[in-house]
Description:
Helix content is 32%, strand content 25%. It is of the alpha/beta class. Helix 7 (254-264) packs across helix 8 and helix 11 crosses helix 12. It is globular and about 65 Å long. The chain starts with a strand and ends in a 12-residue tail after the last strand.
Amino acid sequence: xxxxxxxxxxxxxxxxxxxxxxxxxxxxxxxxxxxxxxxxxxxxxxxxxxxxxxxxxxxxxxxxxxxxxxxxxxxxxxxxxxxxxxxxxxxxxxxxxxxxxxxxxxxxxxxxxxxxxxxxxxxxxxxxxxxxxxxxxxxxxxxxxxxxxxxxxxxxxxxxxxxxxxxxxxxxxxxxxxxxxxxxxxxxxxxxxxxxxxxxxxxxxxxxxxxxxxxxxxxxxxxxxxxxxxxxxxxxxxxxxxxxxxxxxxxxxxxxxxxxxxxxxxxxxxxxxxxxxxxxxxxxxxxxxxxxxxxxxxxxxxxxxxxxxxxxxxxxxxxxxxxxxxxxxxxxxxxxxxxxxxxxxxxxxxxxxxxxxxxxxxxxxxxxxxxxxxxxxxxxxxxxxxxxxxxxxxxxxxxxxxxxxxxxxxxxxxxxxxxxxxxxxxxxxxxxxxxxxxxxxxxxxxxxxxxx
Length: 452
């Protein structure tokens, strides 16, 4: 059961901090301070959905919520994002509250007991108090009990991750690119098994004498598939220190999935005699618990097969160096902000090539358009600011354990300014030693007469 609360949520070290309070209490302001000063990532602003799972209250953003946080007087601001986080602390914002450390207290969320504290969002030490509460392992600034200390000293040493067999379970929406993803893993050295019946999963993964990395495709078309038994099998595999298990969920926008089924003339496995869109909707409801539990949730809506293969190799290749896969995409605001975007840059303030009859039929891939955009008097400062910000933020994202970063650049029609700036942004990232995957979501759909 999922329910929505009026609260902002950020994640510190992967643990959620829910900020509650009436409008004007400072929820977004404190969240922005935690992001800027403590390296937090935004989960949801103003509205947060909570789901009880595995003994934890898991926070997520409601569908359709902008991938940004509101700053009073500054509008929507892009911020580092994380899709979900188990709630470790609830902070009730009460103006005038003065405590040395957050007060020992608890609150129940969806039947789960979570530490709670009261703070004044304007307290200069509010960020430090939240950090102490979360990183101290409790919401109250309390200290470990003697039993806690005994358990910590008697705990066995963790298994060597390098010695564990790598297991990648690939699931997701039918038509989202699972087969392409699996072929890419096979190319980089994985043993691949697709459409494995669920009752054989444990035997294949734990086969005696096998330490070859294995990638296994399982979805609603697999024999004996059911969500709850799949999650039970996943928990059992993750509990084995001899295995390093990653669950990758491939997702895609409904309209794109519907178009893919129409183009290939294939029948959706759940549609039967109904329209494709009904089968897609039924599947999405069925597999949502898998997406919630995934280590990697990859939206393939704007990725061609080459980009998807690049992502698979970058994130799960056996000889890959540590680091994120970075995606840069241009888009048209009139078609909506890409839902997978972590950072969004609006470049509609730049000089519009659409106003020049000679440039109108061209795109941002043409040098003349790129030169026109770069000659805007504000562009040098914009470029320098973007470069400085990415130089600082990308390593921070990596330290937080982020697997991939999507940067979206938008203009009105997605044809001129956003394309040119996205190309330049990719060049900036290459100059920082990165290898971004570059795409232009709406370039093929932009009409020559449309503002861009």
